[in-house]
C-alpha cells in the first residue's frame, strides 16, 4: 500500500489525498467518517481532503438523506485522466523549455557532472539521437548492452567508430579489444566514452560501479579523448596478430610508465 501511495504522490497528490482515494477504491461509496477510519486520516482533516478531491474531479459527492456520501472516480477513468493530464503537461513544458533554450545565451564550453544511472543513460540516448555524421565510442560490455538498441538506430543515419571490451560480435565499425592481463585485471576502471560529431561527449566509469559521468562540449577534451580512442584502436590492430612476446613487452612498458 505504501508503494502505491508514493507513486500517487509522484503524480502530484499529497499523502492524505492518496490515502483517501485508495480508501474509497477499496470500500466504494462511503461517508467521510468511514473514509477517515479506513485511511487513518484525522477526522479534523477529512472533509478538507475529500472536498479538495471533489474539486479535482477525483472523488464524486452526493447527498443521501441529508448526509454526504463519497465515491471514487472509477479506476479506469482515473488512469486515463492521469495519462491525458501527464501528456498535456509534458507537451506544454517541452515546448516552453525548448523556447526558453533558444532564447538563452549559449554557455561557454564546459565540463558538467552528471549524477544517477538513469540520467546518465538518458543523456547518452539523447546524444545518440542528435548525432548527424559520426559516433565515436570506447565502451565495455555492460554499457554497450544498455545502449545497443540506441546505437543500432543511430547507425542507420551516421557512421559508428570505436572500440569495445568484452563484447561478442560488436556492431559494424567497432573494433573488439583483445583480451590481455590488463583488461582481465582492470577491476572497477571500466570507463566509457561517447562522442558525437566531434561536438559533444559523455565519459565516465561504468554506471554499475559509480553513478557519475561527465558531459563536455569543450573541443580540447573531445579532441584528446577521441585521439585516445584512436590510439587504443591502432595499438590493438598492430598487436592483435603478433605473438605473446610483443604483448608481454607492452605489459612491461606500461607497468614501468605508471609505476611510482
TrEMBL record:
Family matches, as Pfam families: TrmB
Top-rank taxon, per record: Bacteria
SUPFAM superfamilies given in the database record: Winged helix' DNA-binding domain
Bilayer-spanning residue ranges: none
Sequence ranges assigned to domain Transcription regulator TrmB N-terminal in this UniProt record: 8-75
Protein name per UniProt: TrmB family transcriptional regulator
